[in-house]
Specification:
The protein is α+β, with helices and mostly antiparallel strands. It is built from 4 helices and 7 strands; from the N terminus they run E-E-E-H-E-E-E-E-H-H-H. The longest helix is centred in the C-terminal third of the chain and has 28 residues.
Length: 151
């Protein structure tokens, strides 16, 4: 994953990423920085605000006047956005950076799909390519939940 580190570079300190954090408590996952496991530490700073279809919208307990007051920020906060699949608030300073990272991954997935097609044609004469095909498919499958089958 990417580690852009929100504390430097592009953050415009709007505080919007600390509100409307979507959490599925039944599955212990959150939809903030892509789809991530909900750690106990991060769950401890969340304050539920509303719920719809099993998804709870939360805000950070340490957000005051659009500024973080948490002296012990969890890693999820320090490294946000760490994924090109992060759900960014409108006008977030990281939008361009995340777009470029996402396009890089999509490009690699498309390249691997093209290589798989070529390798499958040569597979009969070069059976060792099967290992490479499996590697490429595993990479593509890592992003299946984000739509890699459609890229």
């Amino acid at each position: 994953m990417y580690n852009i580190n929100m504390e430097k570079n592009f953050c415009n300190k709007c505080g919007m990423c600390c509100t409307d954090i979507a959490v599925d408590y039944s599955k212990r996952i959150m939809y903030r920085d892509g789809i991530q496991e909900l750690s106990e530490t991060f769950a401890g700073i969340l304050e539920p605000v509303s719920e719809k279809n099993g998804i709870t919208l939360c805000t950070c307990k340490f957000l005051f006047d659009r500024k973080c007051t948490n002296p012990n920020k969890p890693e999820e906060c320090k490294n946000y956005p760490s994924s090109p699949f992060a759900f960014l608030p409108e006008d977030c300073g990281y939008s361009g950076e995340i777009f470029v990272k996402l396009e890089d991954i999509k490009h690699k997935v498309r390249k691997f799909k093209e290589e798989i097609l070529n390798y499958e044609i040569m597979l009969e004469s070069e059976p060792e390519l099967e290992r490479l095909i499996k590697h490429h498919k595993a990479f593509i499958d890592r992003y299946k939940i984000y739509g890699s089958n459609e890229w």
